[in-house]
Amino acid sequence: MERGGRAVPALGLLLVLLGALLALRALPPREPGPARGQARGGGQKTFRALLAAGRERQQPQEEEEEDPPAAPVRRGIFWSRELEARVPPGFAAEEAAAWRAAARGARVASLERGGCGRSSNRLARLSDGSRACVRYGVSPEQIQGEALSYHLAGLLGMQQRLPPMALALVEARGRQWEPVREELRGSHWAEGAVVSLTRWVDNLTAVVAPAPWGGGRPRALAAGELGGLPAAQLVELVQWSDLILFDYLTANFDRLASNLFSLQWDPRVMRRATSNLLRAPDGGLVFMDNEAGLVHGYRLLATWDPYNEPLLRSVCVFREGTARRLAELHRRRNAAAELRRRYRAREPLWARLGFLSERQAELLQARVDFVHRHIAQCRAQAAAL
């Protein structure tokens, strides 16, 4: 019995040793150099450490895709070059010039109602297959404002954000309009009226004002307010900073200012689409329908500057190119003269509508000077921080 009792433990020990030997043979062979799971500097890594290392390897790619640039603003008040490079290009100057030339020479194949704003406007299909919105203003000054705003945008380096636009003369018996003579009779357009042709752009979507202005009272858009914002939002804010300067200079009330005005009876209006502002499929903003600018808007400054001026003051980060062009127009005091020169050179029908009055030209220069001083104040504030 004693001998049998000692044999049982011996047999168990033998089985344990056999199992250990089989386990060792199942291990993978060692590779030369540092052992698997071991850092070159020493200690063995745990399974948790290996998982953490995997996350570290993936992190740089995630940051590149989602995180904002390290410094979205430089010199305190200018958007970084990296951010500006990310802004969708919009309507290239060569492409816009080619479209305007083609639209002036094309025949209007058909006119349709709807899709282009007020009921007096029409959607035109041109003989080359392209489409354009034909705008017939309530008064000639609205078409003049549309044309002058377009060319002022070019003077400021913002024209890529506006759809290409050209003027056309309504002549029922003329070559351009002959195919739609019957439609013209039903449009009630006056013979000899000047209308604007604006390139039709497909797949545009509505734009809601971002955080600095979406809550109602404009909040500061300054370098200190941008921390942690994703790159896509910063890219949109670059475009908004140009838009707000542009609308102040032109006194355009038919965009964000009109939404702010409507707050008095609609507290949720800022959460809805912004008037006359759309987004292209590539994310670029499109500044639409600028008929209220420069002429009509200048007659109503007392009504609308209480909205446009706080919007301007809320912006303290700018595209450096915009600031540089404004500084030059301020220094030379020739904003109206430069606009007139550009308008005459690029629009054959400019004389049909005329140019700004002397008083309107003075107002344009005064508003350029005001924006330039505002930029200087933002620079001083940033330097004091």
List keywords for this structure.
15 helices, 385 residues, alpha+beta, 11% strand
Would you write up a description of this structure?
The strands form three sheets. The protein has a five-stranded antiparallel β-sheet, sandwiched between helices. Strands 8-9-10 form a three-stranded antiparallel β-sheet. The chain has a two-stranded antiparallel ribbon with strand order 1-2. The chain has helices spanning 2-26, 47-66, 81-86, 93-105, 140-155, 181-187, 211-214, 231-250, 256-261, 296-299, 301-313, 320-332, 335-346, 350-353, 358-384; strands at 73-74, 78-79, 108-112, 122-126, 131-135, 165-169, 194-199, 205-208, 273-279, 285-287. A hairpin with a 3-residue loop joins β1 (73-74) and β2 (78-79). The radius of gyration is 32 Å and the shape is globular. The protein is 49% helix and 11% strand. The longest helix is centred in the last third of the chain and has 27 residues, at 358-384. The termini are far apart. The chain is α+β, with helices and mostly antiparallel strands and 385 residues long.
Write the layout of secondary structure elements.
Layout: H1 2-26, H2 47-66, E1 73-74, E2 78-79, H3 81-86, H4 93-105, E3 108-112, E4 122-126, E5 131-135, H5 140-155, E6 165-169, H6 181-187, E7 194-199, E8 205-208, H7 211-214, H8 231-250, H9 256-261, E9 273-279, E10 285-287, H10 296-299, H11 301-313, H12 320-332, H13 335-346, H14 350-353, H15 358-384
Antiparallel strand pairs: 1-2, 3-4, 4-5, 5-7, 6-7, 8-9, 9-10
Helix pairs in contact: 5-13, 8-11, 8-15, 12-15
